[in-house]
Design a protein that fits this description.
Elements (H helix, E strand, L loop, with lengths): L3 H17 L7 E8 L5 E11 L2 E8 L2 E5 L1 E5 L2 E5 L5 E9 L2 E9 L4 E10 L17 E9 L2 E12 L2 E8 L2 E2 L3 E6 L2 E7 L4 E9 L3 E9 L3 E9 L24 E3 L5 E3 L9 E7 L4 H17 L4 E9 L4 H14 L6 E7 L5 H5 L11 E5 L5 E6 L8 H18 L1
């Protein structure tokens, strides 16, 4: 009898740690659903894996896989920082197959918060898409209508059975990688990259027309759209490029880099070089795709007499906030050219006049400026079609290479 307390204590010592050990999300395929107040959801796919005991997430949109490693678990609470943008998840592990919480995203005016639910073993983004007779692969001329204002676009679909991928091209850029399904006559397409959270729905008629289209973005935005199949559809140039103002030939700016060192276009580093100016922001997904391209191009071509500068227009005038967001870009893409913080909000209607008064208004992000060896602005290019657009991305690269090669002559 005297030994019972000792035996009980020994058993307790082994049992209690196992009983209090926190569960972890199961490894494998998950489907996440961002919950909108109007009852619609924006769904996307996540794979959770473990490497040396540490969680690694991959957010998937068609061919794109976004690797996420900044993940911290405290008991049943999980905090996930997206690798780019002011974007994070705060989640509670209900069991190893359900996560519930919020997606939190910084904006220029406030912080956006959306409820989110993750469900395990739900690898299909739209499992209801089981059968269809519709065939919609190809190019479609689309019109988006917001508050009685129409905007042209092109939608490109790639269909395999009921599975859909594609993208939307607009005069300013593209909506990146979209993935979903075709459920009988109903289109479901969505994407999530940490900044974009989009869901497209529409009804297909006779494989040539789409009606009743709705485009859901973020927590509350929604607009109507329609489309007609047209392999020859083009996007009208509704937004003018930027140009030098009369009497101007050169840019003249000086801003701090991410380490607070002042950098000027007139510095010796840029003399007699072809200089590419990237007008961007850390909030901009198309800027993310352009940055991936430019960083790689610079590393492979700087020895030819090429320099680059990124001019960032951020959500706020807070240098530390901008620095933190841009540092993500710098580290993620291994950027070795200067990234300068203009200190002017992207929402400032006088952003161009305050930073680059030599040119007309900057209307699109990203915009690229090409400076010749003589220091004069030679060419400009507004907008960007990224790798999610296939042939359009290849056409952009071809044009970019030709412009730089000509300036190097």
């Amino acid at each position: 009898m005297k030994k019972i307390p000792w035996i009980f204590g020994l058993i307790t010592a082994f049992i209690l740690p196992a009983a209090t050990k926190a569960q972890k999300p199961a490894g494998g395929a998950w489907r996440a659903s961002l919950q909108r107040a109007d009852g619609n959801t924006i769904d996307f796919s996540v794979t959770i894996q473990y490497a040396a005991g540490k969680p690694v997430w991959q957010v998937r949109n068609a061919a794109e896989k976004i690797k996420v490693t900044a993940i911290e678990q405290k008991k049943d609470s999980i905090f996930v920082q997206m690798p780019l943008f002011e974007s994070e998840f705060r989640l509670k592990l209900e069991n190893n197959q359900t996560l519930r919480g919020s997606w939190i995203k910084g904006t220029s005016t406030s912080t956006q918060v959306m409820p989110v639910v993750f469900n395990y073993n739900k690898g299909e983004r739209y499992p209801q898409a089981r059968e269809t007779r519709r065939k919609i692969s190809g190019r479609w001329a689309a019109t988006f209508i917001d508050k009685n204002r129409s905007k042209p676009a092109i939608i490109e679909f790639n269909q395999s059975g009921t599975h859909l991928t594609g993208t939307v091209l607009t005069p300013t850029g593209d909506y990146r990688y979209l993935e979903g399904g075709l459920d009988k006559d109903t289109i479901h397409l969505s994407t999530f990259d940490g900044s974009h959270a989009y869901y497209f729905r529409g009804t297909v008629h006779n494989d040539t027309a789409i009606t009743d289209g709705l485009f859901f973005s973020g927590a509350s935005f929604v607009e109507n759209w329609t489309a007609r199949k047209n392999e020859k559809a083009i996007i009208p140039d509704t937004l003018a490029n930027v140009y030098l103002k009369p009497g101007e030939e050169r840019l003249n700016f000086r801003f701090p880099d991410l380490d607070s060192n002042m950098v000027s276009i007139n510095d010796d580093r840029f003399r007699n070089k072809v200089v590419i100016i990237q007008i961007m922001g850390s909030w901009c997904p198309n800027c993310m795709d352009e940055t991936a391209f430019l960083s790689e191009y610079y590393k492979n071509n700087k020895q030819r007499g090429i320099e680059m500068i990124a001019l960032a227009y951020e959500y706020s005038t807070d240098f530390r906030r901008s620095q933190k967001s841009l540092r993500k870009f710098q580290q993620h893409f291994n950027i070795t050219y200067p990234m300068l913080i203009t200190g002017v909000r992207v929402s400032d209607t006088l952003r161009t006049e305050k930073t680059l008064p030599q040119i007309t208004k900057i209307k699109m992000f990203p915009t690229t400026l090409f400076i010749g060896r003589d220091g004069k602005l030679k060419r400009t290019h507004s907008g960007f079609y990224g790798p999610g657009t296939g042939e359009h991305y290849e056409a952009f690269k071809k044009e970019f290479y030709a412009i730089v090669d000509e300036l190097l002559k």
